[in-house]
Design brief:
Layout lengths: L2 H5 L3 H6 L5 E4 L8 H9 L7 E5 L16 E5 L4 H8 L4 E2 L7 H8 L3 E7 L7 E3 L5 H5 L6 E5 L7 E2 L2 E3 L5 E4 L14 H11 L7 E4 L3 H8 L8 E7 L1 H8 L15 E6 L3 H7 L5 E3 L2 H4 L2 H4 L5 E6 L2 E3 L4 E2 L2 E2 L2 E2 L6 H10 L4 E5 L3 E2 L4 E2 L1 E2 L17 E4 L2 E4 L5 H11 L2 H13 L5
Parallel strand pairs: 1-2, 1-5, 2-3, 3-4, 5-7, 7-10, 8-14, 11-12, 11-15, 12-13, 13-14, 15-20, 16-23, 20-24
Antiparallel strand pairs: 6-9, 16-17, 18-19, 21-22, 24-25
Helix pairs in contact: 7-8, 14-15
Length: 426
């Protein structure tokens, strides 16, 4: 029997491999198997019950909106479609630390099955999860997998390869990968980035996220040398630094000479950079984002964003004006990890205002309904376009004055008045 051809299926056969009453674990971003998920959405009556678990979805699905009442959707980080569904009460949001997500899925699923995109099989019978490792790679060899094979998926290395013998079936679908275009970097982003870069030493190991500020930071690091990468998300900017020799990983304490990430999302240039690149290691999120692992790196730098911060140093990074927008992601993982790293530094960045300059993002108290992502005890540096301040080790009154100095000038008098009224400063 030819095992390869025996396991290649058409879409109806793939659906028949999904047991009724299953918990489907779907990777984020380009790990999402569109052909299979579309078939589930269009053939809901094949199942009496399904539970779908995912973060950062790429496409709108009927099951997110409970059009099929027997199919439940559980999100662990809202993107645009799930955000709307959550606001309408049709999908569930599971609070989590990203590095704990595999553990949560083990705890809460009763008949788990991973369905994901992967590369074509190599000569040794292995498929690569490509742009993904995150929570999906953790389950390789532990639970069943169904693969959607895509020739556009870059072949990557680390611990995100799965053998033909470890899957129950696969189907081919060669749609182009979804691209995440670079953010538009504003003058405000660049100013914030300048303050951050002044505190990044040569030889540091860096974690950067998504958006204009992280992109601006990366663009200003072209004259640094011997930087390392230990990051949740691999981006185009990081790939460009690697191409020009800024990133060598020679000073890293773990995975010396290697770039470490748990997923990647960007343009086709990034995916081409990743393909067959043995300097890059794609590793599961329970390892990459574990604060105990992060803490092993000397001079670890974490750069993240928030939507607002209060005088105590509490950051609401997953809600906007008290309404849920995303989730915690890896902000807390890296924010706590750098606290234990030798010479570690954590930067929380934000524009000083919102709503076209009419609202201050620095507030006496967070907006009602806001959720704290980074606690007052884990805050380190805060950066706006008006400066940078280290809050770690400072009292509440010292924090208050430091944050007011970072606020937009038009709000400082009002903020000072509120601080005195609440007796946070004399």
């Amino acid at each position: 029997m030819n095992l390869q051809f025996d396991k290649e299926k058409d879409i109806h056969e793939i659906l028949s491999l999904i047991p009724d009453d299953s918990d489907l674990i779907i990777p984020l971003a380009n790990g999402e198997p569109d052909l299979i998920l579309t078939a589930i959405d269009e053939n809901p009556d094949r199942f009496s019950a399904l539970r779908i678990h995912q973060m950062l979805e790429l496409k709108d699905r009927k099951y997110m909106h409970r059009i099929h009442p027997h199919i439940q959707y559980f999100s662990y980080f809202l993107n645009g479609y799930a955000r709307k569904a959550f606001a309408n009460g049709t999908c569930e949001l599971i609070p989590n630390h990203f590095h704990k997500m595999p553990e949560l899925l083990e705890l809460t699923t009763k008949q788990p099955l991973v369905i994901c995109q992967a590369t074509p099989m190599d000569e040794q019978g292995y498929f690569s999860l490509g742009t993904e490792a995150e929570y999906a790679a953790y389950f390789i060899g532990k639970i069943p997998f169904i693969l959607q094979i895509n020739e556009h998926m870059p072949r990557t290395y680390g611990t995100n390869s799965i053998h033909l013998s470890q899957i129950v079936g696969y189907i081919r679908s060669d749609a182009p990968l979804v691209e995440l275009k670079p953010a538009i970097v504003t003058n405000t982003d660049r100013k914030i980035a300048e303050f951050v870069c002044e505190h990044i030493d040569h030889g540091s190991t860096i974690q950067v996220g998504i958006g204009g500020i992280p992109d601006a930071v990366v663009s200003l690091l072209k004259h640094h040398h011997d930087l390392g990468i230990h990051t949740e998300m691999l981006t185009d900017g990081v790939a460009e630094l690697a191409k020009i020799g800024v990133i060598t990983g020679s000073k890293k304490q773990t995975h010396k000479g290697k770039m470490v990430a748990t997923f990647a999302f960007g343009t086709n240039k990034l995916y081409e950079f990743m393909n067959d690149n043995r300097v890059l290691e794609m590793l599961p999120v329970n390892y990459v984002n574990d604060p105990r692992v992060i803490a092993q790196e000397d001079n670890m730098i974490s750069i993240n964003a928030t939507t607002e911060i209060d005088f105590y140093g509490q950051c609401a990074s997953e809600t906007i004006a008290g309404k849920y927008h995303s989730s915690t992601g890896g902000q807390t993982d890296f924010g706590s990890g750098v606290q234990f790293a030798k010479n570690g530094k954590g930067f929380i960045c934000l524009h000083s205002t919102a709503r076209n300059g009419t609202v201050s993002r620095i507030k006496p108290t967070l907006s009602p309904g806001s959720v704290v992502s980074t606690s007052k005890n884990d805050i380190d540096y805060v950066v706006t376009e008006y400066g940078i301040a280290q809050l770690k080790g400072k009292s509440i009154s010292q924090r208050t004055l430091a944050l007011i100095s970072l606020a937009h000038p038009q709000f400082r008098e009002e903020l000072l008045h509120e601080a005195k009224r609440n007796r946070l400063i004399v």
